[in-house]
Structure formats: C-alpha cells, structure tokens
Amino acid sequence: MCCFQGKIKLAPLHNLPPELRNLYTSQTPQAKEFQENIRRYNNALAMTSLGCKVDESVNHGNGPYVFKIQGCLSHLAGSLLPQEEESPVYAQLYIYDPAEALNHRMQHEANQNLNRQVMAELQDMLYRTHPAIQLYKQAYEITREMPNHRQCRIALRYDKDCDQRRYNLPTAASNEIAVILPGDGDEVQGSRDIILYCQNGQGLQRISDLHPLYQALHYVLLFPTGQFGWSPNIPYASRENEAPRGGGSDNGGAPDGKRFCVSQTEYFRYRLFPRINESPHLFSAGKLLQEWIVDSWALSEQARLHWIKQNQPTLRSESRRGLMDAVAIDPNATGENVGQRTILPSSFAGSTCNMI
Fold first, then answer.
1. What is d(CA 300, CA 50) in angstroms, rounded to the nearest whole number?
2. Could you tell me whether strands 177-180 and 153-158 are parallel, antiparallel, or unpaired per DSSP bridges?
C-alpha cells in the first residue's frame, strides 16, 4: 500500500530550515506555543485560503481536537493587489515590506494572541526559502506600470514536461514555473495554471488543484521550500520512459486497465508513511497534519468523483444492475425529479451500489 509494490518512487521531503526545525522539535516556551498554535501560524502566513467552511463546533467539548470541513474543498487566491481601502491578505502581504507585512498580520484579530517574535522569524524564513514569493514579486514588477483602470490576468504556469518525479527545487528564474502575462486576459488559459488578477473586486478565486504548487501555497509550514506536490504527470518508476497516460484518474485504473501515472490517492498514501532518510516533520505537525490529511482526502475524493463523471459510458453497463437495485428502493423515483444521473460504481466506497 505504501509504494504500490515499488512502482511509486517520489523524492524525499525537503529538510526544514533550522529555525523551523527547532520550533518543531525543541521544548522551549516559544516552541511549545508554536506547536499548540501551528494551524494559526500557518493560516497567517499562507498564500491561499482554505476555501471551505471549517466546523469548529465539534471542539467545544472536552474530547480530542477534531478538524472537520463542510462543502466542496478548494484553495482560493486573491488578486495580486488589494482593493482600495482594504487590508492586504494572503499572498498580497508578501509584496509589502516585511516590517509592514508583519504589522498587518499581528493586527488581524485571529493572530493577536500569537508570539510576534515567532511570527517574524517564520515570515523572514519564507522570504528566503519559498520560491512562490519571488514569483508573486515578479508578477507585481511586471504589472506595476499598468494604469489602475486596466485589468489583466497573470498565470503561474508550470512546464508539464519537466521532471515531476524528481521535484527539482523551483525558482523564479527556472523554466519549471514561470509568470506569464497573457495579453488582456482574453486568451483561453490552461486548466492547470494558477490564474491571478491584478486587481479584482470579486474576492478570492478558486485555483487549479492540478498545479504542483497547489498545497505548497497554503501549507507553507509543511512545505517551506515550495516543494512540488502532486500533478497529473508523475510517472510510475517502472514507466519512466513511456508516454504518460491516464494521469489524474483516481479510480485504481484507466478504462483499458492500464495507467502510467501516480494518482492523487497513491501520492498522498506514499507521503503518509514515515521513511528512512526523510524529514519526519509531517508527523510532528499536530493539528496542521490533521488539516493536511483532511484536505488531501477531500482532494482525492473529488478527483475520483470527477473521473467517474467523465467516464460514465464505460461504467454505465457495469453498474446498470446496481442502479436498478437502487431505484427499486424508491418506487416513486422518476426521470423528472432525478436530473442528470451520474452512476457511482460499486467500487466507490459509500455509494448505493457499494452498500448493496
């Protein structure tokens, strides 16, 4: 289960910078305060928002801490610049002077009880180590001379042909991740790019979960070096020299029974096993680890549902018998009140066919 019998080989997690490693492992008062509030520190420093409702009511009792989300999960990014008279949030803060950005963070009501010195150390560390900050600054430099009334879109585009298994450390000057200014934003963008607006009054916008920086932009205290996460073109170790195929399907196999790329479920399953000669900090992250696991499971579940929706012709004949059983439960079911039906196969845990 951990490596699909040797077919999955990913690069080890990057080691943490020394100041962050000390906060993870030491028992000083500052480190204990950080470990207790690691989710709040991460949220204060994240470049994207967790785009779903978090149910905190389950933690009002005396039981262990629970992280529970409601609704469809997606990460949201704001515009490159805040609207007039609005405070900067998320990635917008990294364009500001570090001292000014720190003041904005500490003035936020959710961060007022956090340690200012710890926040400053973590912020300075990310300015040094996280390549996405340089990408945002580069995008700002490209657009700073534009008149205020001109709207534009900026794409954080990654080269899908780069080595997705080795995860070379991206930099602002690399060819793996690049800032693209697509004219006035009228061109059709690739679904795997992260699209930013220069200034956008519509609030936070959903970004592509197929981008390898998707999780590194939010979980900055788990991946402070911006290490690439999952993307659809990570080949199996035994298939490196073959053309990628079936990337992103998370059902356990493509319709023809052949799949050449690592699915999201397989990627996260690999990451959730401790390994020799790899930084163990994921398993020391406490509440932030819980959030990352819930996030990862939701991403995998949504990818599996998307694959099923896109492959209904293949699954329909196999599931017709289970569908008839399911409809038989409700004799009043008619085509008028069903809508567009998507059949879940019996392999999908929790589906009617699966339960039957």
1. 16
2. antiparallel
Give, for all 356 residues of the chain, the pLDDT tens digit.
Answer: 788 888 898 989 999 999 999 999 999 999 999 999 999 999 999 988 877 677 777 777 788 888 887 777 777 776 777 777 777 888 888 888 889 889 989 988 888 899 999 999 999 999 999 988 888 887 777 777 666 555 566 667 666 655 544 444 444 444 455 555 545 444 444 555 666 666 665 556 677 777 888 899 899 999 999 898 888 888 888 655 455 455 555 544 444 457 788 888 999 999 999 998 899 999 999 999 999 998 898 888 888 888 888 887 777 655 555 555 556 666 666 555 555 677 777 777 777 777 88
205 - beta bridge partners?
A: 77
Q: Are strands 75-77 and 69-70 parallel, antiparallel or unpaired?
A: unpaired
d(CA 107, CA 124): 18
For residues 51 and 76, the answer to whether their CB atoms sit within 8 Å is yes
Distance CA 77, CA 89 (A): 10
- The answer for residues whose C-beta is within 8 angstroms of residue 352's C-beta and 6 or more apart is 322, 325, 326, 329, 344
Q: Which residues pair with 140 in a beta bridge?
A: none
- Residue 106, φ and ψ in degrees, nearest 5: -75, -20
Residues linked to residue 157 through DSSP beta bridges, in sequence order: 178
How far apart CA 268 and CA 301 sit, in angstroms, is: 12
Nearest Cα neighbor of 36 from 45, 50, 24, 48 is: 24
CB atoms under 10 Å from CB of 30, counted, come to 14
Strand 53-54 relative to strand 194-197, pairing = unpaired
Tokens read off for 134: 């340089």
R_g over Cα of the chain:
22
Distance CA 183, CA 321 (A): 52
Task: Identify the CA nearest to 227 among candidates 214, 241, 242.
Answer: 214
What pTM was computed for the model?
A: 0.79
| Distance in angstroms (rounded) separating the CA atoms of residues 190 and 207 | 12
* Burial degree of 227 (CB within 10 A; 0-12, 13-18, 19+): buried
